[in-house]
C-alpha cells in the first residue's frame, strides 16, 4: 500500500511539473549557468550569468512551494508529504545560505568592475595586472619608506638646531639680565650725581666750558642727562656733522676743533671688558682710551647701521638738521638713501675711488648732491649733462666733455684738472663769462695747453692778482 502511495506521489509530481512550466526548475537557465568555463565569454556575458544564477537561487523557495502544492493534490498522508519535502527544503535553504556567504561582499561584481576598468577579459590577464600593481605598490612603498627616513633625519637635524638655539637664547637672556642689573646699578649711582642737583643756570655755564666730547659723554649717562644737554647746551656754537664712510667714522666739527666717533666691526663678546653705552637704542661697547686724540671707538655688528645710529644720535642731541658732508665707499653707499630721504640733495658727496660706468650713473642720477667731488670717472663718461644740476663739481680724472657742454653749464664751481683745453677754447669761455653767459659761475679750474696770455686776455677787461685774496 505504501509503495503505491509513493508511486502515486511521484506520478503526481511529474504531472505537476508538466502542468506549470513557469514553476519548474527552469532547466534551460540551469544549463546556461553551468556552461563550461573554458569557453571565452565577454565581461558583459559573465555579469549576465552571475545575475542569472542569482535569480536561479532565488527561485529555490518557489521550488519548495510548488513541490508542496503538487504533493497536496495527491492522496499521500501529510507525514509522508513532509518527509518528501524536507530534503528538498533543506537543500534549497542551504543553497541560499551558501550563495549569501559567497556573495556577501559582492566580490564578483568588484572583480568584474576591475576587469572592465583594466580592459582585461580573462583571469590570466587580471592576474598579470594584479602582479604589476603589486610591484608598483612595492616600489611606492620603498619610496615612501625612503621619504620617511629622510623626514626623520630632517626632524632630528631641526630638533638639534632648536636645542642649540634654545641654549643660545638662554645664554643671551642671562647676559641681558646681567646687563640690566649693571645698568640699573649705574642708574642708581647716577641718580645721586651732584650735577643733577645744580641750578639750570650753573649747568648751562658748565656745558659752555667743557669740550664737545665731554658734552656727548655726559648726554650718554642717562635719559635725563640727555634731555638736559639737549635743552641747555650752548646753542650759540655752530656745529657740523660729517660722515666718512670710507674710514668709517662720524665727525662733529666745532669752530675750534672736532670730535670723532669711529664705527668698527667686531663681536660684542670680544669686548666684554669695555664699557657699554646706549647710542640711539643700541647697546654697544665703546673704547675712550684715545680721548686725547678726540676719538672714540665703538663696535657694531653692522658698520652702516652704526654710522647711521651715531649720526642720528648726534644730530638730534645738538639739533643739527643737515649733514654737511659724506664720503662713501662701495660698502657704505646705502647711506646715501638715508641722506636723500632726510635732506634731499643738500649735502656734499665725495668718493675716493674710481667709479665704473654703472656706479657713476647710479650716483649722479640718483643722488645729485649740490656738491660732488669724485676721484675718478671712466674716460668716456659723458659728464656734460650733469653740469646743469650740480652746484659744485670736482673730477680728478679725464672725462668726455666738449666746449658746448661747458658753455651750457649752470655750475657755481667747476674743477676739471685732467681735461686739456686749447687757448682758443679758453678765450671763448672767458668771453662768454664776461658777457654774463655764466650767471652762477664763481670759480673755474681747467687744464690749458698752448696758452697765449695776450691773445686770451687782450680783449677782456681784467686785473692781475698780485697777492692772495679770499673770495666769498
From TrEMBL:
Domain called F-box: residue spans: 192-241
InterPro entries the UniProt entry points to: F-box_dom, F-box_Sdz-33
Composition bias type Basic and acidic residues, residue spans: 1-22
Region (Disordered): 1-25, 130-149
Position of the signal peptide: none
Lineage: superkingdom: Eukaryota
Record protein name field: F-box domain-containing protein
Amino acid at each position: 500500500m505504501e509503495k503505491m502511495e509513493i508511486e502515486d506521489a511521484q506520478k503526481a509530481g511529474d504531472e505537476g511539473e508538466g502542468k506549470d512550466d513557469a514553476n519548474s526548475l527552469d532547466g534551460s537557465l540551469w544549463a546556461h549557468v553551468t556552461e563550461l568555463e573554458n569557453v571565452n565569454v565577454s565581461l558583459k556575458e559573465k555579469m549576465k550569468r552571475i545575475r542569472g544564477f542569482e535569480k536561479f537561487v532565488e527561485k529555490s523557495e518557489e521550488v519548495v512551494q510548488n513541490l508542496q502544492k503538487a504533493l497536496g493534490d495527491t492522496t499521500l498522508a501529510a507525514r509522508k508529504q513532509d518527509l518528501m519535502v524536507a530534503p528538498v527544503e533543506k537543500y534549497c535553504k542551504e543553497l541560499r545560505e551558501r550563495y549569501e556567504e559567497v556573495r556577501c561582499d559582492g566580490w564578483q561584481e568588484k572583480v568584474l568592475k576591475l576587469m572592465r576598468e583594466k580592459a582585461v577579459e580573462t583571469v590570466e590577464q587580471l592576474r598579470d595586472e594584479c602582479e604589476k600593481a603589486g610591484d608598483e605598490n612595492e616600489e611606492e612603498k620603498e619610496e615612501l619608506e625612503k621619504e620617511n627616513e629622510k623626514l626623520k633625519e630632517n626632524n632630528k637635524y631641526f630638533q638639534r638646531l632648536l636645542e642649540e638655539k634654545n641654549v643660545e637664547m638662554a645664554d643671551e637672556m642671562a647676559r641681558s639680565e646681567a646687563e640690566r642689573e649693571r645698568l640699573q646699578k649705574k642708574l642708581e649711582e647716577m641718580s645721586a650725581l651732584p650735577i643733577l642737583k645744580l641750578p639750570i643756570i650753573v649747568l648751562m655755564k658748565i656745558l659752555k666750558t667743557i669740550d664737545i666730547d665731554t658734552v656727548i659723554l655726559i648726554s650718554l649717562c642717562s635719559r635725563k642727562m640727555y634731555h638736559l644737554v639737549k635743552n641747555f647746551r650752548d646753542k650759540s656754537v655752530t656745529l657740523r656733522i660729517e660722515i666718512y664712510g670710507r674710514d668709517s667714522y662720524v665727525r662733529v666739527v666745532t669752530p675750534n676743533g672736532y670730535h670723532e666717533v669711529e664705527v668698527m666691526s667686531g663681536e660684542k663678546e670680544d669686548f666684554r671688558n669695555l664699557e657699554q653705552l646706549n647710542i640711539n637704542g643700541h647697546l654697544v661697547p665703546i673704547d675712550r682710551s684715545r680721548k686725547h686724540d678726540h676719538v672714540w671707538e665703538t663696535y657694531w655688528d653692522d658698520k652702516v647701521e652704526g654710522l647711521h645710529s651715531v649720526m642720528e644720535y648726534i644730530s638730534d642731541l645738538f639739533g643739527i638738521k643737515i649733514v654737511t658732508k659724506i664720503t662713501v665707499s662701495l660698502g657704505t653707499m646705502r647711506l646715501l638713501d638715508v641722506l636723500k630721504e632726510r635732506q634731499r640733495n643738500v649735502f656734499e658727496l665725495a668718493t675716493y675711488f674710481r667709479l665704473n660706468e654703472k656706479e657713476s650713473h647710479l650716483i649722479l642720477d640718483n643722488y645729485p648732491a649740490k656738491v660732488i667731488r669724485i676721484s675718478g670717472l671712466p674716460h668716456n663718461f659723458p659728464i656734460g649733462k650733469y653740469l646743469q644740476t650740480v652746484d659744485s663739481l670736482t673730477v680728478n680724472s679725464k672725462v668726455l666733455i666738449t666746449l658746448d657742454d661747458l658753455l651750457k653749464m649752470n655750475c657755481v664751481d667747476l674743477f676739471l684738472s685732467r681735461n686739456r683745453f686749447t687757448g682758443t677754447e679758453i678765450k671763448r669761455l672767458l668771453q662768454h663769462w664776461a658777457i654774463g653767459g655764466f650767471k652762477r659761475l664763481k670759480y673755474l679750474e681747467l687744464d690749458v695747453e698752448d696758452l697765449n696770455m695776450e691773445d686770451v686776455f687782450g680783449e677782456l677787461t681784467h686785473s692781475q692778482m698780485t697777492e692772495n685774496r679770499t673770495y666769498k
